[in-house]
Design brief:
Number of strands: 21
Radius of gyration: 23 Å
Strand order of the largest sheet: 3-4-5-7-8-9-10-13
Oligomer: single chain
Shape: elongated
Strand content: 25-35%
CATH superfamily of the largest domain: Glycosidases
CATH architecture of the largest domain: Alpha-Beta Barrel
Largest sheet: 8 strands, parallel, barrel
Structural class: alpha/beta
């Protein structure tokens, strides 16, 4: 266990009553994950700026224990290192404002990230941060409902825009679009039905337009009809999970339709509005049954097919000549809603190996009918003794199932292993040892 962890993470499962759930373990115990560049999975020639959505509250008593404290600089540094290895451009922090003392832990985590980037951005961590203002930034100060909260919300958002501008947006590592800092919003306007949201946004936008570098506002696709938002500068696509049923768990692209109409609508609008910021998404799945606020909304992972489906859909609209500028990964670490990718995605394969003479054979054994070879990148063969493993051959094509060891392994008695190297974000697997004597 890494020294910065305070306890091992033991994984999370779905609700016991979901007896037909395809994905029972929604957050696996951390394994050997392929943290290599995600661009290799996207359309050829992709230059998308990959942004990881990030939850800053683990270590706080308000949320489940996943084994680490995000106020810890070493935790932040290790997570950012993995994001950079994945080809990441930056992190989008789910931000609960600067005015609520009850959310001080969240703010501390954000400031730990900012301090870390200040120390290394121009040298060892070419990585950026943007803020997503969560409705929790003002919901306790301005309660939801029919009461008019226009002035209250405006006051809180204006104060938070000042904090973002003074503490983050002026730094060289903050995410910008054509030199304008981007701020995302995660809220649901109808929950404040008595509020004049047009006035809210008019006043807040007017305030940020007075900054030396005015902000660009990016709204959630399913929340405020963002493509036609009169003060919006762009949209991001989110989860859109369905309420649990044995059938709807497979509706990966819309909450009310087996077809991916929600995601398709996003990309169609993005292409039709090229002047707007568009932050697409690839997701592993969703399951909020480990959240105190959960309502049993579930999108099955399908052994990684959900991630592949959201990835492949992008190629219908973008290519090397017409790039998707921003690609979101929701989420890096939302353990409570079963969408985290930090611990790896299970592709439902294990590896079995056998030897006949000098010929090594191996098979992928699937634990689910949803397992697909499209999640496998390549194989690596190792030989080893009790202390050390050595590479016999690397980068073996994913469709190869045997190899001659005669010229690959030096003389001696060895254990042979076959390692399945999965696609980025998936868990790698290695076979049990097979004895081999090379002459």
């Amino acid at each position: 266990m890494p020294p910065y962890c305070r306890s091992p993470f033991t994984g999370n499962s779905t609700k016991a009553a979901n007896t037909e759930a395809q994905t029972v373990v929604v957050n696996p115990v951390p394994g050997n994950v392929n943290f290599s560049d995600l661009h290799s999975m996207l359309y050829p020639g992709s230059t998308s700026k990959i942004l990881f959505h990030y939850q800053p509250w683990f270590g706080s008593s308000e949320h489940i224990d996943v084994g680490y404290n995000e106020n810890n600089k070493t935790v932040v540094a290790n997570q950012i290192a993995r994001m950079i290895a994945l080809g990441g451009y930056g992190v989008i922090v789910d931000w609960y404002g600067s005015t609520n003392p009850a959310r001080g832990f969240h703010l501390n985590t954000t400031n730990v990230i900012a301090k870390y980037l200040n120390s290394c951005f121009s040298t060892t961590c070419p990585f950026r941060m943007a803020i997503m203002v969560d409705k929790g930034a003002f919901s306790s100060q301005c309660p939801k409902g029919k009461k008019d909260q226009t002035s209250c919300i405006t006051k809180n958002l204006t104060r938070d825009m000042d904090y973002i501008n003074n503490h983050y947006a002026k730094e060289p590592w903050y995410v910008t679009d054509r030199d304008n800092p981007i701020v995302l919003f995660f809220l649901h306007e109808p929950e404040w039905s008595g509020t004049d949201w047009q006035r809210v946004w008019s006043e807040v936008k007017s305030h940020t337009n007075s900054f030396e570098r005015p902000f660009k506002f990016v709204f959630e696709e399913e929340d405020v009809n963002c493509w036609r938002h009169y003060l919006g500068d762009g949209c991001y696509v989110w989860m859109n999970p369905a309420k649990w049923s044995p059938q709807s768990q497979f509706d990966w692209g819309a909450s009310s339709n087996p077809k991916p109409v929600y995601y398709e609508d996003f990309y169609k609008n993005a292409v039709a509005n090229p002047e707007k910021i568009a932050i697409g998404a690839i997701k592993k799945g969703f399951d909020d049954n480990n959240a105190s606020w959960g309502t049993n909304r579930v999108t099955a992972q399908q052994c990684g097919q959900t991630l592949l489906n959201t990835k492949d859909l992008i190629s219908n609209y973008y290519n090397s000549r017409y790039q998707l500028e921003y690609l979101g990964v929701p989420t890096w670490n939302d353990y409570e809603e079963g969408s985290e990718v930090e611990t790896g995605i299970d592709n439902c394969y294990t590896v079995s190996a056998s030897i006949s003479g000098h010929k090594l054979n191996w098979t992928l054994d699937a634990s689910s009918s949803y397992a697909t070879p499209a999640t496998v990148d390549h194989f690596t063969i190792y030989y080893g003794d009790r202390a050390t493993l050595y590479v016999a051959k690397d980068s073996i094509s994913a469709n190869v199932t045997s190899i001659d060891l005669a010229r690959l392994v030096p003389a001696g008695n060895w254990n042979i292993y076959v390692r399945m190297v999965a696609k980025p974000l998936f868990t790698n697997r290695i076979s049990d040892p097979v004895a081999y004597r090379s002459r």
